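Dear colleagues,

As part of the handover before I leave the project, I'm documenting each prediction I ran so the next person doesn't have to rerun anything. This entry is a single chain, and its sequence is reproduced below.
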Amino acid sequence: MRYYAVIDTNVLVSALLNASSIPGQIIEEALSGDIIPLYDDQIIAEYNDVLRRQKFKFDRKSVQFLVNTIIERGIPIDAGAVEDVLPDASDVIFYAVTMEKRKEEEAYLITGNLRHYPSRSFIVTPREMLEIIRNNT
C-alpha cells in the first residue's frame, strides 16, 4: 500500500542526525518504500535552507541526494489557501500541501512537532506513521 505524505523538515533533520532512528525509517520509506512524498517549491526551498545550515554539519552530497530523491519519488502539489491559523507561519505550507492532496485522497503530514499544527488524525508523528504502515501490510 502507498501512503501520500508531506514530511516536515524536523523529520529530515532527525533522520540525518541518526539514520537508524524512527525518523530515519520514515525517510527510508520515502526514498524506497511505501511513502510517496508530497511537496511544493516552498517546501523544497526550506529543506535546502535548513539542511544546509552550518550548525548541522550535514554532508552536502547526502543532503542533495535526499532532496533530489524526494523530488524524483514525490509528487509536486500546488496548494491553495487554508483557513486554519497555525502558530508558526512557516508551517502553513506543509499543512496546505497536505490539505490540497486530501481533496483527492488520503494524505498525511508527518512531523515531530504536533503542537505546531491543528489536532487532526492525519497529522502524525514518525512513530505513528510507521504504525499505520505496519498495521496495513
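The two ends are 7 Å apart (CA to CA). Residues 81 and 96 are 7 Å apart (CA to CA).

All the best with the project,
I.
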